Fold:
Amino acid sequence: MREIAYEEIVKNVRDIIIYSASNLPEDALKAMKEAYETEKSPVSREVLKQLLENADIASSEARPLCQDTGLAVFFIKLGEDVRITGGLLKDAINEGTEKGYTEGYLRASTCEPFSRANLKDTVGYNLPAIIHLDIVKGDKIDIEYAAKGGGSENVSRAKVFPPAAGKDGVVEFVKECISDAGGNPCPPITIGVGIGGTFEKAVISSKHALFRNLGTKNEDPEMDELEQRILEEVNKLGIGAMGMGGTKTALAVHIESNPCHIASLPVSVNVQCHSSRHTHITI
Amino acid sequence: MSQVYHLTTPLSEETTRSLKAGDIVYLSGVIYTARDAAHKKLVDLIEAGEELPFDLEGSVIYFVGPTPPKPGDPIGSAGPTTSYRMDSYSPTMLKNGSKGMIGKGKRSQEVKDACKEYGGIYFGATGGAGALLGKQIRSAEVIAYPELGPEAVRKLTVEDFPVTVVNDTYGNDLYQMGREQYEVK
Structure:
């Protein structure tokens, strides 16, 4: 058994939240620079230029890249040989989240669904964090974190198709989703697609697909081909950066596929804005 | 061809009717922030015939919920939020004298029609450029609904705040125009 102190988890979570808010990760920065170089529309290029300038200012002055500093989303793999001393894992993640958002001067964006009352004074500052937990072999805690903004989340969709829909059905569904969204999710976007599993498995897979580094290939050649096909179709829509019209609507399509029921073909589309603030640490 | 303008608020109808979709505008002066929750309260006041926390005539409303300021700064990061959530309120705001809105993303036909009828402009600011846009804000003061936290109404003084005309007073829509140009059918 390896012992990991509760406070160590709190500190790590706090630190990655503050760092991520103002530092666009290398993979996202590279993808944005490539988009700027290849975009054909001058108006969209101007937007991309502003966004690259914004990334510079955010990083050098430690200001949040975007005022929507998101809900804190975690995918955690807990090694079964880890024993956490001094408290519960979930509490440590939430405490680290609250510290990160308050001490980093980030926005408290959680509220009651209907009264819309902000939860900062009742439940906690930007709490609760959204936590997906898996138990794995080993003596480490693997933490993938992303700050997920509302604009791109609002255009995300899921549907369970009949199996006959096939790949064509999936491509059409993604295209329709992105076409309807237009400039609202802050393009150029990353499109996470969850395929198969049950209804909720597809949705969680589409979220997790967004944590994959931009510029990396899908290990499954069949899914890699489908990713390229969807990307090409989506970039024909002409939406461009911030919906101003252009050739770079999406930076990438990331698919996670799972076995599913013989009666179903669940598909979920989760959209990530250009400010792809995600990070990965191991404790 | 798109033009570049430097304008100071409040905006007159003569000014707004001279702008065209695609024009780049650097705004200076006072603008007011309001998101969904604040819009609901403002429109409720208008409908009840009560006084508003600021003068709507010629005003520009910025759809934003900024991050908290760091010590010594007037405001934190402050980029636009998605505008369609304000679609049901904006025509009332324009009818009662407001002349401009700053946000991101497409608007409803009702909002575009109200822009034509009342001489309003919908400006787009770059979504996700919160650090860059926040730097153009010189002062910020909560003037109403502090209980709404990031959604409170703030009076901002801005200098050369960069925006683009998306919907003008002639029914043009930059998003539609841009997309039609680059769509591959």
Notes: Chain A has two domains: 2-20+65-148, 151-276. The helical segments of chain A are 6-22, 26-38, 42-61, 89-103, 150-153, 166-181, 199-209, 221-235. Chain A is about 40% helix and 25% strand.
